[in-house]
Design a protein that fits this description.
The chain is of the alpha/beta class. It is built from eight helices and ten strands. Strand 1 and strand 2 form a beta hairpin. The longest helix is centred in the C-terminal third of the chain and has 18 residues.
Length: 254
């Protein structure tokens, strides 16, 4: 479903140095597979996602989705492709205040559906996410976990082939974080949707088929069990990578 071929993103920095945010990354994600991508703040995780989402142009390399090189798409085609094929879940809740959970979840679908039709399509998805009794509640009255579920429903509303989640549990406590990760994994498996979860929390490994670590712009594979069983070692590795990366432009919001 998703294939990255030697993807590169370099930025010029002060003193003529080059920040290698993403430095020759290659990976594949199959339909229905969930991949957890780890790395400390500034490691380039979000930069990588933005290139996959066609919101940032790579310095070199290729992004293929469904076998198609997205660099070959026109600006109009890329916009349509993002709308129909990609779901993006952010750490921040992009919900409209004063608007119901149901109507917030339909916002993406409204670009191709009438309001009533969009509501009919999204309501069963929200019910599946455990929000059947909260459809008419305004966004500001929802808990953090409920707001994140609305974001998941919005991302999946257009029946995308790929979901990108940028720190989806960053604003949640551990219990609600686990609930959200489990729901996201099960929905993606059920719908045969490939998903990439960017996180700095080892908890996400429980809900991933594979774990990849991004450090110095490069990927390495880790077994989910290893990340789960060695949280202290993982934290030390995070600090080590942060020291190696040193100060510089903040390229990663996660």
């Amino acid at each position: 479903m998703l294939e990255l071929r030697e993807l590169v993103k370099h930025y010029p920095a002060a003193g003529g140095e080059l920040v290698r945010a993403v430095d020759g990354v290659s990976m594949r994600v199959a339909p229905g597979e969930t991949v957890a991508l780890y790395g400390p703040s500034g490691s380039g995780k979000t930069t990588l996602l933005l290139m996959v989402a066609m919101l940032l142009e790579p310095t070199a390399g290729a992004v293929l989705i469904g076998g198609r090189d997205v660099a070959e798409l026109s600006e109009r085609e890329a916009s349509h492709f993002r709308l129909s094929q990609l779901g993006f879940i952010r750490q921040s809740f992009d919900l409209l205040p004063g608007v119901s959970a149901l109507d917030n979840a339909t916002l993406k679908l409204l670009k191709t559906r009438r309001w009533r039709e969009a509501r009919r399509e999204v309501a069963p998805l929200l019910e599946q996410l455990g929000l059947g009794e909260r459809l008419s509640h305004r966004s500001e009255t929802l808990s953090m976990g409920e707001r994140q579920r609305v974001m998941i429903a919005r991302a999946l509303s257009t029946k995308p082939r790929l979901v990108l989640a940028d720190e989806p549990t960053g604003s949640l406590d551990s219990r609600r974080g686990r609930e959200v990760l489990e729901l996201l994994r099960e929905l993606c498996r059920e719908r045969d949707v490939a998903s990439v979860i960017v996180s700095h929390d080892p908890m996400a490994a429980d809900y991933a088929d594979r774990v990849l670590v991004l450090a110095d712009g490069r990927l390495s594979d880790h077994e989910p069990a290893r990340v789960r069983s060695q949280p202290a070692a993982w934290a030390r590795a995070q600090r080590k990578v942060t020291r190696i990366a040193g100060p510089g432009p903040r390229l990663d919001a996660g």
